[in-house]
Amino acid sequence: MSKNNADYLKSVEGGVVQPTQVVETKVFKRRWAILAIFVFYSASNAMQWIQYSIIANLVMKYYGINSFAVDWTSMIYMVLYIPFIFPASYLLDKMGLRVAAILGAVGTAAGAWIKVFSVAPDRFWVTFLGHSVVALSQVFVLSVPARLAAVWFGPDQVSSACSIGVFGNQLGVAVGFLFPPMLVQNSDDLAVIGKGLQLMFYIVAAITSVILVLIVLFFKAEPPLPASSAQAVQRDAETSESFMTSLKTLMTNKGYLLLLLSYAINVGIFYALSTLLSQILVHYYPGSEADAGRIGLAIVCAGMLGSVFCGIILDKSHRFKETTLGVYVLSFVGMIVFTFTLDCGQIYVVYITAAVLGFFMTGYLPVGFEFAAELTYPEPEGTSAGLLNAATQLVGICFTTLSGYLFNACGAFWSNIALSVMLAVGCLLTSLVPNDLRRQKAKL
């Protein structure tokens, strides 16, 4: 329900809150429609990330390529994000949510339509080109949830709204895990595989086109009045501070840098595990391509629940560091259990342990965003989230490459053990992050 009130506008200098003037704030009902549109927009981009890797053996057979080329359809999302997140963050901060969303939706739809014309065994370069356009558009998606939540939602809903925004990405990944194995059937006849790919590409292109129309017609940059006093301070700060100054401030914040590295380790491991999931499952359970998709779906669906659950906890308790560390430790425990149950011979056990791992590892995404927003306030959430994601993509490339090498050289067990060790390092780094909740102080 929207409301009018008069709050004291406050500024933050070195973590100290100082009142400056009275400001009117209001929470608008349309915030839920804006959030819903973003969820589907985010999902339309994310569902294309893993659509090749989850049917890796079929893509290799149809296009006549090796597993490394298929892995690159996932890693290109990470590679392109790193250099382009900086201009994308600048556009998000200076031109607003609407412009960023339109640019991302146009790229996502355009890339999807390019793939429609890639159904021929000699056109892998065409499908990779279209996939790269979609991957590039991701820079206008991943940094938005924290920003959208802060701009449109009041202080008692901002963490939950951020978790729902992240839910969109997870929903897309879930669709990417589930439907490609259902639409593209394994066959020795390449025409059968090609027919499945064509159907998949047309469906995705149609969905992304509809979402583009919705964004152009209904998506707004910000409400007429700030949703909270903290957001009012931030609006003033953004008008007086340059993007490079904001970037420098973030890169000299030691607490944020510790969180940056620990966040990148956690989510980078999730990227590596998702990319190699089909190959790992087929190694232990031959002919389990469809199971790989369903297990990936279990990971992400459990993560959706984890995201919303953690968002509610943050809104109710405001214990950001404790929640972040707790979820991180449980991600580590989940990874250990998943690793030691892969070869148990009962695939239903893998479903269960993968879902437990997904609940905490994927549920960690909005927790990290919100803790970063607290540590860096009043800097724009889009910039802090963008740097988190850039570090994640870089680490994800390294972990995916390392895991692929270890998988081929030593087997899935030692590949997963290496990832587990890195999660333990991430737990240590998280414990060292100071509990400096600047945005909470701005509400006092």
Descriptive labels:
globular, two-stranded antiparallel ribbon, 18 helices, Growth Hormone, Chain: A, 444 residues, 2 strands, mainly alpha
Characterise this structure.
This protein has one domain (4-441): Up-down Bundle (Growth Hormone, Chain: A), CATH 1.20.1250. α7 (158-183) runs antiparallel to α15 (364-376). It has helices at 31-46, 56-63, 67-95, 97-116, 124-137, 144-152, 158-183, 190-218, 229-240, 243-251, 254-284, 289-317, 320-341, 347-361, 364-376, 381-410, 412-431, 438-441, and strands at residues 4-13, 16-26. It has 18 helices and two strands. 76% of the residues lie in helices and 5% in strands. The protein is mainly alpha-helical and 444 residues long. Strands 1-2 form a two-stranded antiparallel sheet.
CATH level 1 class label: Mainly Alpha
Low-confidence stretches: 1-20
Total beta strand runs: 2
Please, how many domains?
A: 1
Percentage of residues assigned to helices: over 70%
